[in-house]
Amino acid sequence: MTAQYDGIGGSGLQFFGKVSASISHELKNVLAIINENAGLLEDLTFAARRGAPIDPDKLDRTVQNFAKQIHRADEILKNMNRFAHSVDQFECRVDLHDLVVLVANLAARKAAMGRILIETKTPAQPIQFIGNPFLLENLVWLCLELAIAATGSGRTLTLIPEKTATGILLHISGIDGLGEPLPVHDAAGLEAVRAALGAGMATDPAGNTLTLRLG
Amino acid sequence: MRILLVDDETEFVATLAERLSFRNMEVDYATKAAEAIELAARKTYDLAVLDMKMPGISGIELKEMLKKQCPGMKYIFLTGHGSEEDYRAGSSEASGYLVKPINIDILVTRIKKALEAK
């Protein structure tokens, strides 16, 4: 089974690295906000000791900032934990929507840097995918990278899982236009991950939707 | 001294602005590049503190835009990680870069030092 990972080579490692870097950057921002708010309390205490009145609204705002950032960090770490555990099993049953939401969350910062939003659509019925969750996350991530690169700022990319009579599909819609050849940074990596999963990949004639066929 | 802070994290930039104002600095802040450019068109700032990575624009790109409006302004960059690109930004014509979370005393020292050299 590890042959699946041997096949994707450095691409999988790069994916892991990119996600880790993005998470660490996000957490640095959270810490920076907590640090400034702790510092503000220190400044207010210093001023109060010298007789300055304390503004309760300011204290309330600071406490709210702490609570908000703790919640944000908790969400980031939950995603990180789920992502880290996705390498635990080479093959398992995965809820496609849950996996897509996870990858969308992990890619949200990358998209935001290009002023792009990522949305996910919940299917009417749960869609189960049986396979390697890490490889599927890698493939969705690579396709999102491709979609982000081909989409202008202010746009929204939508991830739509779909089950048809012939198989499981994942559409990424809202792309400005994918030309031929596809603007892929790591074409060999994308091909290796796609092949390891046995997935198909196609775009609509206008290049606005990228569709993965997952079996 | 007049300082312009630019970072897309509102809670960070607003709180840092408040803390710098406690330290006798006149501070305005922006969370978007367009807001920063608008502020710089209305007021003269001695120094700008810019986040390296913001949606749609880098701190370096914003510095280049602000330089046209405020030729004498000094710059300090803030970064979430000390990458090689960040290091280059800090070692060129800017007055250095600081890694988040920042130490306010170090930031104040850097600001004063940069403005003394003006």
Encode the helix/strand succession of chain A as letters.
HHHEHEEHEEHEE
Through-space gap between termini of chain B: 12 Å
Q: What is the highest CATH level, the class of the largest domain in chain A?
A: Alpha Beta
Structural class of chain B: alpha/beta
Indicate the proportion of strand residues of chain A.
Answer: 15-25%
The Rg value of chain B, from CA coordinates, equals: 13 Å
Sketch the major β-sheet of chain A.
5 strands, mixed
> What is the overall number of helices of chain B?
5
DSSP strand tally of chain A: 7
Strand order of the largest sheet of chain B: 2-1-3-6-7
Any idea what the CATH architecture of chain B is?
3-Layer(aba) Sandwich
What is the helical fraction of chain A, as a range of percent? 55-70%
Overall mean confidence score, pLDDT of chain B: 89
As for the number of domains of chain B, it is 1
Structural class of chain A: alpha+beta
Shape of chain B: globular
Indicate the mean pLDDT of chain A.
92
| CATH topology type of the largest domain in chain A | Heat Shock Protein 90
Which oligomeric form is depicted?
heterodimer
Main attributes?
heterodimer, A: about 220 residues, alpha+beta, Heat Shock Protein 90, 2 domains, five-stranded mixed beta sheet, two-stranded antiparallel ribbon, 6 helices, 7 strands, about 55% helix, B: about 120 residues, alpha/beta, Rossmann fold, five-stranded parallel beta sheet, about 45% helix, globular
Can you walk through the features of this model?
The complex is a heterodimer of chains A (215) and B (118). Chain A contains six helices and seven strands. In chain A, helix 2 (10-49) runs antiparallel to helix 3 (56-85), helix 4 packs parallel to helix 5 (133-149) and helix 5 (133-149) runs antiparallel to helix 6. The model of chain A has no long low-confidence stretch (mean pLDDT 92). Chain A is α+β, with helices and mostly antiparallel strands and 215 residues long. Chain A has helices at residues 3-8, 10-49, 56-85, 96-113, 133-149, 187-197, and strands at residues 92-95, 117-120, 128-131, 156-164, 167-173, 200-203, 209-213. Chain B is α/β, with parallel strands linked by helices. Chain B is 47% helix and 24% strand. In chain B, the strands form two sheets. In chain B, strands 2-1-3-6-7 form a five-stranded parallel sheet, sandwiched between helices. The longest helix of chain B has 13 residues, at 10-22. Classes of the chains: A alpha+beta (215), B alpha/beta (118). The A-B interface holds A 21, 24-25, 28-29, 31-37, 39-40, 43, 47, 62, 65, 68-69, 112-115, 153 and B 9, 11-12, 15-16, 18-19, 22, 53-56, 80-81, 99-102, 104.
